[in-house]
């Protein structure tokens, strides 16, 4: 039995999310089915994060234990061949120690949230960015974002369905950058609550539109109350970028 | 009657190309149908360039004459509403003089061709870039590209269906730039022959793979013979970027 670590890129649009669901397609199921087709084994794949429906992956990390003796490169090639026509690609595959765990060994996760700040409808980016029509004040958003960096009770920015034990998390980075009509919001932490990035982005957008002051964002944070959330951004613009591990 | 100039973004994947076709959907037809829905007029739209099936537009310029009295902004908004669900967006609309012609007044056209130089299959970029598995030597491609800049007989790089009177064109720019595993090839000229950019990119890719020397590219150019073409790149990676006019 070998534990293989995978780096996975996926387009979240056709999926109910990463995690296997009874009622629709998932990234997990597509990869597990590909592993079965290649090895004849019903392996379970574990990921660094469980992304929601419509959220994308640039370099998700995941692992599975497979008994069939295969070189990592050959396994990757075989899985990519079997994953068609799903928009999922295995970018890298390596054998890892048996105690390495894509989720529990992970010490850092990063996301990027992409916004198209324009009036015109989207064409090839439909479902891949969040279109915001109102002009966004990037400087105000960046200033507001710094109020969320650090150790806070993020109850306001947490889905009612979040299963984390504590709403207290340490946000290491939240930066808003603009290039032309494109905004990218970079978020980094050891771990995130369910919907945390989308909820933070939604409230930052309210600040950018001028509908919220920076003080309003601070008050929402301090309310520690989901009802104080101003806006949850859609999944379209959210990408899981990278999982960090102590050694790999 | 007012002549309106449009700036159009479109995803070429679902279309047989810009130009109206009897046997399938086209960007031209979708916009003309939207104009009819908005104005009740069967206007004909003229574009700076007629892109092939699968080729995309970042900022194509086009014009149409419309009798109905409408402010440009309102016309743009109405057209965008009617264009759904087609992946076509009117980015800008303005009233122009009656002698302004999107095609005949145009004095410069630019394209970008996007390559993903990687082994893994594409996910959300499927149909939006050309995936090339073999490692590409960008420096060799850039050096070879300079052999095509200037005034040449581009018969080798011209489709058999090209309707231009002369195969002699002046290429003002052909630059190959790399960022990570992405290549962007920028081409600028007053006008291009049919398939010229894709044919030039295909041959540059052969140089990048090491299958052609820079001398082979020069020989292909000097052969002035379509049979000397090494490779025609697929439409996936090609984007019409910009049309230049003396005044607008």
Automatic annotation (TrEMBL), chains A, B:
MF (Gene Ontology): RNA binding; tRNA pseudouridine(38-40) synthase activity
Key words, A-Z: Isomerase, tRNA processing
Active-site residue list: 52
Enzyme Commission numbers on file: 5.4.99.12
Record Gene3D superfamilies: Pseudouridine synthase I, catalytic domain, C-terminal subdomain (3.30.70.660), Pseudouridine synthase I, catalytic domain, N-terminal subdomain (3.30.70.580)
Record flagged with keyword tRNA processing: yes
Domain Pseudouridine synthase I TruA alpha/beta as annotated: residue spans: 8-104, 144-246
Residues that coordinate or bind substrate: 111
Group of enzyme by EC: isomerase
Biological process according to GO: tRNA pseudouridine synthesis
Catalyzed reactions: uridine(38/39/40) in tRNA = pseudouridine(38/39/40) in tRNA
Coiled-coil intervals, chain numbering: none
Similarity comment: Belongs to the tRNA pseudouridine synthase TruA family.
Function: Formation of pseudouridine at positions 38, 39 and 40 in the anticodon stem and loop of transfer RNAs.
Subunit annotation: Homodimer.
NCBIfam families assigned to the protein according to its UniProt record, in alphabetical order: hisT_truA
Protein name: tRNA pseudouridine synthase A
Native source species: Sphingobium chlorophenolicum L-1
Organism ancestry: Bacteria, Pseudomonadati, Pseudomonadota, Alphaproteobacteria, Sphingomonadales
